[in-house]
Design brief:
The chain has a seven-stranded parallel sheet. The chain has a six-stranded parallel sheet with strand order 12-17-18-19-20-21. It contains 28 helices and 21 strands. Helix 1 packs antiparallel against helix 2, helix 12 crosses helix 14 and helix 24 runs parallel beside helix 25. Helices cover 42% and strands 12% of the residues. The chain is an alpha/beta fold.
């Protein structure tokens, strides 16, 4: 008999391990310290311990736990499972050599392009689809996950990215004549084969994640996507022997696609009805009540899977009752991939702040408490409801949260546009900096050696004092500056050895933030971050970066670039307040950073980079919601540098930006120099730049730092020449894609040496061409 859908569930869970066990296993395998068998044993243990823990937290029903584990990325996993990326693997797991070559590249092949997963800080690998790709079913690893869990006493739910979302995120390969979505029927046939294999193995439920259904997909209308969803899931539902189908639509509300998807024959529908989504779409709960048939199990994602505040359980219970359904399950709005494991590990957090929080484990208990309140009574989990009431009350009353001086300053700046002066005036004034044609620089950070990390840890624990710590950091700055001078970089940075993370470092030095010791969240692969917690009004009590930048300027005659993280990125990579608008918090952070910029300028730093790699990350998934966000995000960036002299050159850096999608906003930032990631996409973003007529200086990255491979000089020359076809030489900078923190010094030295050599080769070639032009002109021929 088929198992019923569980009353309490989650749609995904952190996969790095509470102590980053996956990170250690990955990096040990990549470095050769363990072999494939050791790696497999490590991740097997991690998965089984996760299932045991989730069952202990209350997810005891069959199929309450999703099998959402991935070695590196769930999009890559699904693409291999359906043959969108051809695979030679025939075993119970992916071929690890092939798998990690796709994710990280090799010495001879680049990795897959990587970009942000919807409006989150998670990065997925972008598949490419060629006309001759033949989709094929490879369900082996799903079957292995199911069997592994069952042997340990758990019936878990296999998870795949749904076919619409997979194709919506896929790029056409060069020379392809059709859109990926045009091949939906072919792909659906392979999904049918996969679910048939799972049914034969005794699986009762399978989960398909379809976040594309809550977003605006370029080149595809809402109506087209809605009809594709109805058609696809009608076909999957018609599979003769199949598990029951659970389709999720996280990160927002279903609009045009709700009716068709709900009526397609699927057995359960997971929806995001978190407070954040209800604020954007107040009628969503009403539409769900009237448009989802009673025979479809509604899985109400009411516990916020993306933020860390304790849920208001009484309000959530009222919303669940408003659905007015006999059959409803309680879940998370999204996968819990986006939050840390547990607050219990955070012994250093202020006690009152800690009491306001729920991480992944606490959210599971909130889900279970709401499910018990529906099936039994609110009193069934009285302690959980009392905790929620206490968190809400003490947070609203806390003197930590509100600062009258900050509120007054923010209100006074409300009408400021952030405009300095026009770019032509600034460009002329900045000629005094003496920056040459095709200048080379880096994005800011340099490799963080074990010695640097140890020095920070020793200082934090009190094993070394401020004097010794400062001396160690200055020694590292001397090393970084010396390396840049040796390699011939034109604009140097101090390397940021004192920074554990580009956002956390600033959060530790700004009032209104708290930071964690173990609040790790996966960004991609083995890369993890600890997002700070923005709980109150923000101000800067003291200068943050000035000492380090001023010291660097004393050690070199070259131009020094100061490095700050911008207000939007600090917000995007933090857990933010839900009691005030993001606009207000952005302005507060911007004004605090404006104080830092003025202090850097007063210290003689003539180039200042204000990084905004996450500008697009917070972009609402619906185009109709974007104008307001772009208005306040651009303004907050401009506030940071609004008071500086025209002689001070302001840079910014953008990651994974899909430049063309927000090019108006990037132009409105009005930075003097904008650096962007471009190497993995082979300079595709430059088409948008040329079409738009972007007039300020730009640095499209030529060295992909997310891969350990060292690009050769000819490859870099090719990229620089490609850039010069779109950007005049007097406005082009040569730089890596991003910061170098995660790389090692041997590869960084080699790659930067090649970068400078490639720039020099291009300059020489241009000079030779110029001499040839002069010779032709002297002979009476027109210049080329």
């Amino acid at each position: 008999m088929t198992a019923p859908f569980p009353t309490a569930t989650i749609t995904g869970y952190p996969r790095i391990g509470a102590r980053r066990e996956l990170k250690r296993a990955l990096e040990s395998f990549w470095s050769g310290r363990i072999d494939a068998d050791d790696f497999s044993r490590s991740v097997h243990t991690l998965r089984i311990e996760t299932y045991h823990r989730l069952a202990g937290l209350g997810l005891r029903e069959d199929y309450a736990i999703p099998a959402s584990y991935s070695h590196y990325d769930h999009v890559l996993d699904t693409a291999l499972t359906v043959g969108l990326i051809p695979s030679s693997s025939t075993g119970s797991d992916f071929d690890l050599t092939e798998y990690f070559a796709l994710a990280r590249g090799t010495a001879s092949t680049p990795p897959l392009e990587m970009t942000k997963w919807f409006d989150t800080n998670y990065h997925y690998l972008v598949p490419e689809l060629a006309d001759d790709t033949a989709f094929t079913a490879h369900p082996q690893h799903l079957l292995a996950l199911v069997a592994e869990a069952e042997a340990a006493g758990h019936r878990v739910r296999p998870v795949l990215v749904g076919p619409l979302t997979l194709l919506a995120l896929t790029k056409p390969a060069p020379g392809t004549t059709t859109r990926p979505l045009d091949r939906l029927d072919e792909l659906t046939a392979v999904y049918r084969e996969i679910i048939g294999s799972l049914a034969v193995a005794g699986v009762d439920w399978i989960q398909f994640d379809e976040p594309a259904l809550v977003a605006d997909i370029p080149g595809t209308s809402d109506e087209e996507l809605a009809e594709a969803a109805r058609h696809t899931y009608s076909a999957l539902s018609a599979t003769e022997v199949r598990p029951r189908l659970f389709v999720t639509a996280p990160y927002g509300s279903l609009r045009a696609g709700l009716n068709g998807l709900a009526g397609s024959g699927i057995d359960a529908l997971g929806v995001d009805i978190s407070s954040a989504t209800r604020a954007v779409d107040p009628q969503y709960v009403q539409r769900l009540r009237t448009q989802v048939p009673d025979h479809v199990r509604l899985v109400a994602g009411i516990i916020d899977g993306r933020n860390i505040w304790a849920d208001d359980l009484r309000t959530s219970l009222d919303v669940l009752r408003e659905l007015n359904r006999e059959t409803v399950s309680v879940s998370t709005s999204t996968s819990l991939l986006h939050v840390p494991y547990t607050v219990e590990q955070e012994t250093a957090l202020p006690v009152d702040v800690a009491s306001w929080l729920s991480f992944a484990e606490e959210k599971v208990t909130e889900v279970e408490a709401l499910a018990a309140a529906i099936t039994e009574a609110p009193e069934a989990r009285a302690a959980a409801f009392e905790r929620a009431d206490r968190a809400r009350r003490t947070r609203s009353e806390s003197a930590r949260v509100h600062n009258d001086a900050v509120l007054a300053r923010t209100e006074a700046a409300a009408a400021h546009t952030g405009f300095r002066t026009d770019f032509a005036t600034r460009h002329a004034a900045q000629q005094t900096l003496g920056i040459p044609e095709l200048p080379t620089t880096t994005i800011g950070s340099f490799p963080q050696t074990p010695e640097v990390r140890r020095a920070r840890a020793d200082h934090r624990s009190g094993r070394i004092d401020d004097t010794d710590y400062t001396a160690l950091m200055k020694d590292e700055i001397d090393r970084v500056v010396g390396l840049q001078e040796e390699l011939g970089l034109d604009v140097v940075v101090h390397g940021e050895p004192e920074r554990n993370d580009m956002v956390q470092y600033f959060a530790e030095n700004l009032d209104g933030f708290a930071t964690t010791d173990n609040g790790w969240v996966q960004s991609y692969g083995s890369r993890c971050t600890r997002p700070p917690i923005l709980f109150g009004d923000v101000s800067r009590p003291n200068p943050i970066t000035v000492e380090w930048s001023a010291y660097t300027a004393q050690q070199t005659s070259r131009t020094v670039k100061g490095m700050l993280t911008g207000p939007v990125t600090i917000l995007a990579w933090s857990f933010v307040r839900d009691d005030v608008p993001l606009r207000e918090s952005a302005d507060q952070i911007a004004l605090a950073l404006a104080d830092e910029v003025l202090d850097l300028e007063a210290a003689g730093i003539g180039v200042i980079q204000v990084d905004e790699p996450a500008l697009r990350e917070l972009l609402p998934l619906r185009e109709s919601d974007r104008a307001d966000y772009l208005d306040w995000s651009v303004r907050s960036f401009r506030l940071v540098a609004a008071q500086v002299s025209p002689r001070t050159q302001i840079h910014t850096h953008l990651c994974y930006s899909e430049f063309g999608e927000i090019i108006d906003a990037i132009n409105a930032l009005d930075a003097d120099v904008t650096s962007i990631e471009a190497a993995r996409s082979r300079m595709e973003v430059l088409d948008d730049i040329a079409e738009y007529g972007f007039e300020r200086e730009i640095g499209p990255g030529v060295y992909d730092i997310h891969s350990p491979r060292v690009p050769a000089v000819p490859e870099l020359v090719e990229l620089i020449e490609a850039a010069l076809r779109h950007v005049p030489a007097d406005r082009l900078w040569i730089n890596p894609d991003c910061g170098l923190k995660t790389r090692g010094y041997p590869e960084v030295r080699a790659a930067l040496a090649n970068l400078v050599a490639a720039r020099d080769e291009v300059l020489t070639t241009r000079a030779d061409r110029g001499r040839g032009d002069h010779a032709l002109v002297g002979a009476g021929q027109p210049p080329r």
